[in-house]
Amino acid sequence: MKQTYNLTEGKIVQVLFRLALPIMATSLVQLAYNLTDMIWVGRIGARAVAAVGTAGFFTWLAMAFILIPRTGAQIGVAQAVGRGDSQEAKVYIQHSSQMIIILALFYGAALIIFRRQLIGFFKLQEADIIQNAIAYLVIISCGLVFYFLNPVFTAIFNGYGDSKTPFLVNTVGLITNMVLDPLMIFGIGPFPRLEVAGAAIATVIAQAVVTLIFLLLVKKRPEFFSGVRLFVGMKKEYVKKIIKMGFPLALQSGLFTIFAMGVTRIIAQWGPIPIAVQKVGSQIEAISWMTAGGFEAAMSTFVGQNYGARKWRRIIRGYLAGMSIMSVIGILATGLLIFAPRQLFSIFIQEEETIRQGVIYLRILGFSQLFMCIEATTAGAFNGLGKTIPPSFVGIFFNALRIPLSLLLSATRLGLNGIWWAISATSICKGVVLCTWYLLMLRKAPETKAMLSG
C-alpha cells in the first residue's frame, strides 16, 4: 500500500520511531492550536484567558465523544491490516466516519442550546468573563464537525501505518491558525478587533482547512477508502465492536473533564488568577502529555498490527522499547518544568502575580511527568490488544480521587497548592498502578508462558 508500513516486521525501535515521531508531532501540532490561542489571548490579560479556559472545558469534554469512533478506527483498522483483511479495515473506516458526524452534530447543538447553563456551572462572578466564555463556546460549537472529523481521519491513516500524512495535514491547519490568530484577535489590517471571539473564529477556520485537505486526499487513496459509503445504514455488529473498544476510553475522557471541572470550581474560590494559572499551566504541561499521548497512539497501532498477526514476542519487546523511550522523555519534561517554570510561563502571560503562582504550579506538576509517560505508553499497549478497560478504570479511579483530595489538602496550610499536589500525586499513582497491572497480565498470559517455555 502506498505510504503504509507493515509494523509486524523490521527492527522494533526503528519501526516505533518511524511510526511514533509523526504521531507525536501531530499531537503537538494539535496542542499548538491551544498554545497559539493562549499566547495571543494572554496578551489581553488573565480575564480573557479565564474566559477561554472556562469554555475550553467543553471542547475538552468533546474528546469523550470523539474517542469512541477514533479508537474504533485506529484499533479496528490496525488489527485488520495485521490480519491482511483490507475489506474489514474499510468497514471500520465507514462506520467510524458515520458515527463521528452524528456525534458532532448532536454535541454541537447541545452546547449552543445550553450555553448559559453550562458556563453558569462555574459560578463565575465577573460579567465580562461570562460573556466572553459564552461567545467563545458558541463559535467553536458551530465548527465542531471539523474538530470531530480530523482526529478520526488521523486515526485511520495511523491505523494503516501512515502517520506522516496526518502530521503534514494538521501542520497546515496550525500555520493557518497562527496567521489568523493575531489578525482576528487584535484587528490587524482589514480585520476588526474581536479578541476572544477572534481566537475562536481563527481556530474554526483552521480546523475546516484541515478537513478539506483530508477530503481531497481521500479521493487519491482508493486503497483506503474505495467502497466506503457514508449514506448507507450501519451494521449493528460493527457499531457494537466500535463502542466496545472506544467506550471505556470515552468514559475515562469524559469523566476526566468532569472531574477537572469540579476541581476548577474549587479553584474558583481563589479568584480568576488561579483559573488562568491552571489553564495556561495545563497547556504548558500538555507539551509532555500530548507527546506521551502521541506515543500512546503509536504503541496502540504497533501492538494492534502485531496482535492481528499473532506476534506476541514482538509485542512484549515493543512495549519494553517504548517504555525506555518514553522514560527519557518523562525525565526531560520533569527537569524542564521544575528548573525553568518562569521562563515557560512568561511566554504566555506577563502579569507578575499570575507568573508567580504559575511557577509553583509547574514545579509541583513536574514531579509527575515521568509517571504520566509510563501511564500513556502502557495504555497504548493495552489498547492495541483491544483491552481498553484497564487503563480506563485506573484513569477514572484516580481522576475521581482528585476532588476529595483537593478539598482535603486545600483545607490545610497548603491552601491552593494542595490542589496542585492532589493532581500531581494522582498522576504518579496512575503510572505506577497501570504499569504494574500490565506486567502482571503479561506474566499470566498463555502466550507469554508458551513463549518462555519455547
Task: Note the main attributes of this structure.
454 residues, mainly alpha
Describe this protein's structure.
There is one protein chain. The protein is mostly helical and 454 residues long. The chain has one domain (12-446). It is built from 18 helices and no strands. The radius of gyration is 22 Å and the shape is globular. The model has no long low-confidence stretch (mean pLDDT 86).
Brief characterization of the structure:
This protein has 454 residues and is an all-alpha fold. The protein has 18 helices and no strands. The chain has helices at residues 12-42, 46-83, 86-113, 115-120, 127-142, 144-159, 164-186, 196-219, 222-225, 236-267, 272-308, 312-339, 341-345, 352-366, 369-384, 389-410, 416-444, 446-453.
How do the strands and helices of this protein lay out in sequence?
Layout: H1 12-42, H2 46-83, H3 86-113, H4 115-120, H5 127-142, H6 144-159, H7 164-186, H8 196-219, H9 222-225, H10 236-267, H11 272-308, H12 312-339, H13 341-345, H14 352-366, H15 369-384, H16 389-410, H17 416-444, H18 446-453
Helix pairs in contact: 1-7, 1-8, 1-11, 2-3, 2-5, 2-6, 2-10, 2-11, 3-5, 3-6, 5-8, 6-7, 6-8, 7-8, 10-16, 11-12, 11-14, 11-15, 12-14, 12-15, 14-17, 15-16, 15-17, 16-17
